[in-house]
Amino acid sequence: MELYVTGSNIFNQWLCDDFVINEFRICSPSNHKLETDGNRTILLQINWSYNILQINDTLHISGAWDGKENQFIKVPLPNDCVKSKEELCITGNDYKIIVVDKKMSIIWVLDLKTKEFKNLNFLIEEPIEDGTKKKKLDDNVSKVILSSDSCLYLTQRGYVYSGILPSYVDTGHCTGKVIDVQCGYEHFILLTEEGRVYTWGNGRRLQLGHGDISSLEIPTEVNALAGIKIIKISAGGWHSLALSEFGDVYAWGLNDTGQQGIKHLNEEHNESFSVPTLVSLFDEQGIEITRNVKDIACGSKHSALLLDDNTVWTAGCNKYGQLGISEQKYPSSNYFRNVFQCDKEDRNYSLICGPWNTVICCTFVKKS
Amino acid sequence: MLALREICYKLEEYKTNVATALPEIEDLDPATKSLLHRYINSTESTDPSSTIRIQAILDYMYEKINIGNWKEVKLFIRKAITIATYLKLLAHVRFSDEDTDTMIKQAYKIIDFGILFGCPLDKQPRLLQNCATILNTVNIQKNIILKDTTSKEKNNATSDTSIEADKFNAIQIETIDCPSMEHFYKNYILAEKPVILDNCINHWPALEKWKDQNYFIKLAGPRTVSIEIGSKYTDKDWTQRLITIDEFVKQYIYQTEGPTGYLAQYQLFDQIPELKNDITEPEYCCFSDSNEPVDVMAWYGPKGTVSPLHHDPKKNLLTQVVGEKQLFLFAPADSEYLYPHEHELLNNTAQVDPRQPDLDKYPKYKSSKPYYCRLKPGQMLYIPPKWWHFVESLSISFSVSFWWE
């Protein structure tokens, strides 16, 4: 896997010296110190001070570790975790890393301060009719995300749990099985198989997309997207993006640095949109681009799009080079700019953002 | 006037004290904490390449304090802002290649960001204010307004309170002359009754000094404050903005067009302690049910600032220093006649405008009993807890409120 990286390198998490990377630059973490052929490297998550990488079955951290920056560390997993040989779900925030064994349903919590693992039992259960007893379901964890102070788990059967010690989130009213969940700083989004989008959490900065600043305790369908089949969702710090089956992107929430990327006639204008609003893209001559978007990702105050011609477009805050262009010249951009062209044949490209980073993951297409 | 080298030296003297405050950020994330520890305990922070990391810490912590309600933000995050601000200031003063004027003005901006968004360290509570005091010893160019900026006192008696009160069908609020502590306590605090106190602050230097708007520019022109823009906070286009005092006086105190700017409910005296010498805390505030210090707030703005009808939980002595304000007060029992907003964030605010009550929309207002006054320089108005009040400035105005429990 190759990574094209731009943005913050404050903790040397991209294993180079510049604190700010302001153009997409190749970074191959698995080449660093331990390259052997056939390594399967996956960039799992980009955080403020470190990145989480999975190299084969091992967990690696790049960036800040144990009071030092510029580290590349293989994190020793607890014995029972290694022995299980099951697939792992891994996520982290500024304080903790969570490792979940998909089958065993045990949660190992690594405290980044003490470097100690603690484990918790994860009983997958759902309250049954009478509301008192709980039944255990035969189910596996498929995703876990930890962001700021929030944590969400998603299972293969489509159940959602919140909190590090998981508590059941009722999604019984949602149409279709839940297939993805996303966490903003204080809001949550879920996507169902039917292509419907539900949001909940704090709505003070319009990030829930229901047209007001109310907060919601239960996942509530975003009406403005009703009738549009959504295939991918992404939550930024206080904004959100959704990608439709036709390759259209909708944005809503805070727009203080132009992170919604919606070009306005008045160039200085950073109006926030309280409901999902279609994003249009324009080339340098101001002519609208009709190509489809195939991937979306949000950072804390920026957004990135990948089009079907493998061009990458970014908008929002660029203070740390997260848009892939000069931060001196463009401190922010309130519309999407074409900033990169992925040009290698036979590769698959996808996007992943950290709070202040944009990364293009490039993998070889498997030949059958 | 100190040489810049001495300024650097004086600022760095706090470093050992700040180091003793590091346990106060023990709960910070390990990566940020180890950077701050290293920079405070070594000379590495004065390596120019570290400034970008210190700025990144400030930016990241600023994102953190914007998550959730301001009152629930963890203090260690705000303390990290204070410490990072101090480090940024040291590097700025030492390495800035700007001319002294620009450098010092930028240094105040750095400090004021830390004062506004950080919070005091237990071990060194006045760290950033003290740093500002050190910078004050450098004389810099102040952009004084050349025209006469002294507020003119109106001598005409057309604005007689009793006539105005009649016009609004309101009861004129009683005025008493510098009452004894016992009299005030028994008849107003215990009775929860509003009253105007005359001749209690005649000794305040502020009464003379603050008439001249250049005084604020001279004393604190380059300092950054947070102001409210829009005529009242219930308006849709109401917003807040950071601005220097210099710009505020020029753009908002003397402007007649465009949106209103109001330095409202602002802890100016914590930020600029020199201004505290111009006022004194009224002795009446000693009748307190708690040990909490009195909240002293500044309210400085042009003619036409409006605080919509609202109530506060604490006792309030609103002191008029410069200019005039008109106020409408209502007893807590009148709430149902005033139509409070239903949204949880605004339910201490009512929808009626007592100047022009819309009786079709708010018919019950007829049953309310408004109290009215025009507060003049040198007067203090006692507003009992939970009493509704509507405030409008009738000229350039500077008031100081004292809130206590």
From TrEMBL, chain A:
This is RCC1 domain-containing protein 1. Coiled coil: none annotated. RCC repeats lie at residues 195-246, 247-309. It comes from Spodoptera littoralis (Egyptian cotton leafworm). Transmembrane segments: none annotated. The lineage of its organism: Eukaryota, Metazoa, Ecdysozoa, Arthropoda, Hexapoda. Gene3D superfamilies: Regulator of chromosome condensation 1/beta-lactamase-inhibitor protein II. It holds the Pfam family RCC1.
Automatic annotation (TrEMBL), chain B:
Signal peptide: none annotated. Keywords: Iron, Metal-binding, Nucleus, Oxidoreductase. Residues 270-405 form the JmjC domain. SUPFAM superfamilies: Clavaminate synthase-like. Its cofactor is Fe(2+). One of its GO terms (molecular function) is metal ion binding. It comes from the Eukaryota. PANTHER family: BIFUNCTIONAL PEPTIDASE AND ARGINYL-HYDROXYLASE JMJD5 (PTHR12461:SF106), HYPOXIA-INDUCIBLE FACTOR 1 ALPHA INHIBITOR-RELATED (PTHR12461). This is JmjC domain-containing protein.
